[in-house]
Description:
15 helices, 16 strands, alpha/beta, 443 residues
Amino acid sequence: xxxxxxxxxxxxxxxxxxxxxxxxxxxxxxxxxxxxxxxxxxxxxxxxxxxxxxxxxxxxxxxxxxxxxxxxxxxxxxxxxxxxxxxxxxxxxxxxxxxxxxxxxxxxxxxxxxxxxxxxxxxxxxxxxxxxxxxxxxxxxxxxxxxxxxxxxxxxxxxxxxxxxxxxxxxxxxxxxxxxxxxxxxxxxxxxxxxxxxxxxxxxxxxxxxxxxxxxxxxxxxxxxxxxxxxxxxxxxxxxxxxxxxxxxxxxxxxxxxxxxxxxxxxxxxxxxxxxxxxxxxxxxxxxxxxxxxxxxxxxxxxxxxxxxxxxxxxxxxxxxxxxxxxxxxxxxxxxxxxxxxxxxxxxxxxxxxxxxxxxxxxxxxxxxxxxxxxxxxxxxxxxxxxxxxxxxxxxxxxxxxxxxxxxxxxxxxxxxxxxxxxxxxxxxxxxxxxxxxxxxxx
Length: 443
């Protein structure tokens, strides 16, 4: 069952560490079945309760999953190892439309903003005990949030959207709690939730966002938190509409103790209005990243929320990293105040590429989705076959397995690097690879 790798250890900590190390080195592969607890206990000469405790630790750490009589196996995306094993290795000469990265030509130069921030830091050094959030940045962020209808709340800064979401979930949830997430959804989030010892319940979505009936079903079944992407949903490009927001707020009003987390990473690259859900539940957080519009390496997001959530999140942050560099905060503030990014032009650029590809695919009988952002989602009957054939045609796309829980197969195509001359050739390659004249979308 385990090949040449023997699980070792006498105590629960040693056994769990042995399994985790093997997964991290690739000696235990995703999906590989582990021995039944009694069998392993007999092999190791320990009490079955010891193995049970080890397996429980591994589940809480997001390394393995247990499915009743089917036993325990290494998670498809174990938290203990690199979760990019599903990503495509792009051979030389193949165009890469798989990464989800922004077009670097649309990102602003960072040098002048950081030079200004560094000069200010020389004149006004930030020291231990100083405020963790740059006052000017907090004011600017709060003004933007107010303009978009996000409820009042304090402002905090985190090292990107995922860091912010992790801190918010940790502020309220405990291992074993259930989190409702979009399916298909952001692959990194689908990895993070079980890594925190939380359980996922998938929520379907269409172009207007999460389906209210799915959200209601998840919350009635005991989900304690709901994570929603407001715009540029990854991987489908969905954006919450005004009517969908009203329907979702009505559902949330029936479950006021739900922790609501909204991710607006599309801010600055979409031209669709924001329709926030916050303000209905007792605890909520709204996260806004600068990665797509200003650069992923900034590792920067602002967030707001109810007083208790932000107090817990900020208090825990103080005990760890302390704060996000005020030099970086000042540089981001400089980029904002100087209008370093023409957000309307960026939104038009991505929208034009996205719409052109969707139209070209439709002309070839291939259904595709992408209402906002930089990605197009294409349902396919066979992900592996489609990805392989596209590679042979000179295009790398992301297999949908990175983004799915229960939803049907698909592939994600990032349009960031597409030129007008690319569209027809890519559409021809997709149509040939998918062979889906009669295949319908997954919603």
